[in-house]
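Could someone model pyridoxal-5'-phosphate with this protein?
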Amino acid sequence: MFFVRICIELTSLLQLPAEIALSVETRGYARVPATNYLVPCMNSDKLTSYRERRCPSHCMLALQSESAFVFWPSRTAAAMPTTLQESIPVLSSDEVISRLRKNGNALNKPFRAMYSSVLNGIITDVSFMLVPIDDHMVHRGHGVFDTAIISNGHLYELDAHLDRLLRSASMAKINPPFSRQELRDILVKTAAVSKAKDGLLRYWLSAGPGGFNLSSHECPTASFYAVVHDLMEESTEPVKVITSSVPMKSPFFATMKSVNYLPNALALLEAEEQGAFAGIWVDEQGFVAEGPNTNVAFVTASGELLMPEVGKILAGCTARRLLSIAEDSLNGLRPPIDNLKAVSVRPILAEEAKRASEMMMIGSGLPVVPVIQWDTQQIGNGQPGPVTLALKALLEEHILADSSSHHERIPYDVYA
Ligand SMILES: Cc1ncc(COP(=O)(O)O)c(C=O)c1O
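Reply:
Sure, complex below.
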């Protein structure tokens, strides 16, 4: 509950003390203590007109906070809601639309377009980018998702991400409402309508709307949603990570990209609370797993790039591309990377990993972030390592290049 102190400008009718506290209980209303009354709060920009029109017959309380004022409309006091429940209106459809629009405008979210199979269309007004409450993805977590980057007007690695979405859907017993090609076409069109040249395309396959039971048998058809939004500014600074104390997902759930990301969200919050970039999961045998939304890799003192096997973690598309870039360099298909001598994918004990010369986090939105400290252990010399920086540059170059088979040109002109 949020308390605001007030000073009274005019309280003749109420006989309120000179200083009281109001608790703001719900948007637009505050409760006057020692009374059972809720009073409407208004912003200071509305004060002038309000004062001119209504002040003579009303009592006004001015908040010490510069931006808020509370008015007591004395003549209508009897009609004022007296409980929180009474202050909650029952809305008409028009009112819902108007409130959604108001909320959408106020939030100013950088969401450019949304596809919804429920509406069978693409929405560009952020106010209406919504999912039904009875969708089993919402109330049972019965959904899977994936993400692809939009870079320089192209979708990067769309097919790899779409394949993983369909693998996850099959594990989650979700029968997609469209063929792979149709899903792909929807994603490309949503990206085009969004007009975003850089951003993220996120998409979900869900058991679908149908009711509030546990079994998805009540859902007539699975649903598909996709959203294009702007990229968040990521820091390019090297980071520190911690060992996560949040229990790790079992392999079945870790290898599926389902919407059950509570462990991941908690692992990230725990890290953020300690000023770290991510929490790293280490399994019961002491082997390194992954971060909450990234894979991890290490470079040993002898120049070996090490990555954990994917049997117990999510098979990251970015990590796989990074491995193939590193292998190409070793095999002479790309210029060599100084200090890189070998590539291995194998179980890595956390003890061994902490002694590595270099450590990096890898994922779609990053794509590579150097790690210089894990718990209290400095990694290498405490600076981003040369192999990490070389791989980061090569991967960024690969993402930006727009002519490879990993890039799908977005046909903005077709949907302009
Ligand atoms: C748990 C987890 N591991 C790894 C990754 C990295 O995968 P990708 O490189 O495909 O983005 C992600 C991405 O979201 C993730 O959620």
